[in-house]
């Protein structure tokens, strides 16, 4: 479009509401929104006015030769906080900071010029307020203790008050603009009254029409500001009332609980004083060679029964839940230029780039894969669903939740050594246990099998294809993920989307997830199509947006899913659907869904305190590399270079990493020589590798017909017996 601007629209929720899979109309500028569009800028007397793309954001007006330049080349920026805005005629205006920067600009029409003037004056007023507040805040001083206590308690209230105050200031600015344009409109009307019918009539009528249009534009801006202010005030008013009532009720409950705990304390002390801990072979439900869970409850003692029954015999046995660690050593502040290493690796696969541990995080790829189970409760809930379509919603939310741990995790996990394993035994706390094994080195591939006593099994084999393109790194996971529910026999499959790491050369690293996922229930034919929208500077959608539609085998929509992969997912039941009037990017009409009120499926758990100093690890991630007795000698927890890195001894970790990689290469060459000696002479020159994984075997998947590695069993029995004689020496 020529000369037009656009901003992010307001979002409304109604019941029932229409969910339209299409872009909103282009509105007028409003306070606090980015405003963009084409203007003509005076360059020199030879070239005159040249068409440029202008962006107004955060009190700064920047311009580019084209929209494509926005990602890399800004031609100039002026700060509106100290700038003067002058209107010259119907289409021309000047912006100057009183110094070396002066922009002579021309819009395509007077209406378009006034849209820009309105947006610029609003941005200038806000930028001036922010600068004044910043100057005032520099004179304030509080003690650290007082600041910490008050900040934690009042930060949300103060932030909301500042936002409300900003909205009031926006209303005041809009009011001044309306008064200004209203006076101009009144003058034009007065002049029209004194005009005799003749040649001047049409010109005066045109002026009145344009003045009325400008007045309408400014009035609409004020209406938008009022709507923002009222919506914010109403939303927070209700939430504060609910929060206050909840705090009162919680205080009463806590007082009652403390009284009960005080009475039970002596009983618990006596009970635990005589309790003995079960051996590891009895402390968890047993799992047979194929991963079927067998609950051994005959020696099991519930702690609550001890607390409520002080006469319980002292001979009963209890298994206390293990306390997991909640911190790891802070990440050292070692500087190293990533570009100095990566510049010679453009076009190569990530797994073939020798990287120092400085760019790693102290977890292996097997442990990162196990983090897919961070929100296992979604599968627990799905297992209880009677409806396969409702179950699909929870499975889809689970697929999205696995990406939430990646939003700040720019560190590269350790590449697992061939034969490396990682077990995650959480039967006692969460009802599941999982095992990962690195089954191939080139290409790198890991097999994963998890089973829960609550009725579900998760298995996957993920191979990573990665390419470094100079400015960004793309990681494409290959392979299918399977989830099977024991009660209904519903069998779901899906694949992962592409992960992109941006700003490799310069700037702050950031991660994006993009692509599409089809979650399929092979028993019923139900399907959920999820779209992960890639980040775009030009998009008016929220960042990291995910949308989806759940359909049955006939293609009829039953649920609409929406949210972001780093925060939450919601679902809404579809009551009616119809074709919309607008076409999508593919030229097809988009569908409008009439839905009931949204229901929250999943919300991300906040990161632990100090996570920014601990590689942004979640609560689960902090426990993954915690030393644990009884695990296999090939377990990632026993990897020495990874352990040294976690302890902050990076130089020693780099040396140990090189030793392990050279050892792996030596073993591989010897294995290939043995395989070649027994190979067919007709295949001379072909390299053979007869490596076979320890706990997984290669099969043709009965559901997808793809070759994959499936758990063969035996790991948990070997752990129970403490028999690791057949494990390779990889560390």
TrEMBL record:
CDD domains: PH_OSBP_ORP4 (cd13284). Residues 635-676 have a biased composition (Basic and acidic residues). It is a peripheral membrane protein. Residues 237-271 form a coiled coil. SMART domains: PH (SM00233). GO terms for biological process: lipid transport. It holds the Pfam family Oxysterol_BP. Its main location: membrane. Belongs to the OSBP family. Residues 32-125 form the PH domain. It is found in: Membrane. Keywords: Coiled coil, Lipid transport, Lipid-binding, Membrane, Phosphoprotein, Transport. InterPro entries: OSBP_sf, Oxysterol-bd, Oxysterol-bd_CS, PH-like_dom_sf, PH_domain. One of its GO terms (cellular component) is plasma membrane. This is Oxysterol-binding protein. Residues 140-161, 305-317 have a biased composition (Polar residues).
